[in-house]
């Protein structure tokens, strides 16, 4: 079968299914990530900065929570245009800069990394392309080892990046990856155990036009990635909000025509979502809850996810959401492998 005859969604479907194996393999090969972590630990930073775009930006948001909570360091997301458009060169001595890019080919991230290294930062590239310009520009590199990804919508590279960032932060604090040793198996069980609920969700939401995605804590990154996946594969008007931010104004736009995808896993972030969901349910929104605590909140439909430590829950939470985006795209007559106007590598400056 030629590429032009490839059935719609074949690449995305296959790559979603590959993730348990990819994640298990990355855990097994974590020694290289631990060596990068040891180098960082020998030069303790004052704070950390993260540079990324697209899905990688959501992985960076996840890493921001990891760094602030598990390492106790201030962390922020870089605005690449401050360097690429405005030529800013802040003093970055004793700063850790982590650049996250699946392809490692975006010119703005390359320029940010090169500028940060000149300004004294310890630079780390996290990428699925070991030979990329970004990897060569950084002092240290982490290979997420997801293998070639054919679908435009990132799936296995996204979860592998999350895991690589977790393994890096965990190793910096002296951890031994206790919470992810069986992650590959948990990922497989999550995909299998959520399949029926995802099918029901596709049937229920195939004609929806407006979606709000929301989560708190570590799961805010999952909500952001969910909105992107729904927008790029199904062309939905999807917007992500932190649960707290949703209550600070945007909830006024929620009504019975609004679908709300709420990411709710067990832990402090999930517990903080109860007031948020009470508010959107009171406004008659149609709620789809995804996560290990999905059954504990008011929702029209719940998609189960295996429970794990809260700080690694985003790696599992996003799996059924990827399947949801795939299913909705196909149900609406689209092809998630060929979203209109998009390419696998987006070059920005």
Give the count of helical stretches.
13
Q: How far apart, in Å, are the first and last alpha carbons?
A: 37 Å
DSSP strand content = 15-25%
Coarse morphology: globular
Output mean pLDDT. Answer: 94
> How is the biggest beta sheet arranged?
5 strands, parallel
User: How many structural domains are formed by the residues?
Assistant: 2
Please name the CATH architecture of the largest domain.
3-Layer(aba) Sandwich
Q: What string gives the helices and strands in order?
A: HHEHEHEHEHEHHEHEHEHHEEH
What is the CATH class designation of the largest domain? Alpha Beta
Q: Output the radius of gyration.
A: 19 Å
Runs with pLDDT <50, length 5+? none
Helix % is 40-55%
The fold-level CATH name of the largest domain is: Rossmann fold
Structural class: alpha/beta
Q: How are strands sequenced across the largest beta sheet?
A: 2-1-3-4-5
CATH homologous superfamily descriptor of the largest domain? Glucose-6-phosphate isomerase like protein, domain 1
Tell how many strands the DSSP assignment holds.
Answer: 10
InterPro entries: GlmS/AgaS_SIS, GlmS/FrlB_SIS, SIS_dom, SIS_dom_sf
GO molecular function: carbohydrate derivative binding; transaminase activity
GO biological process, one term: carbohydrate derivative metabolic process
Keywords: Aminotransferase, Repeat, Transferase
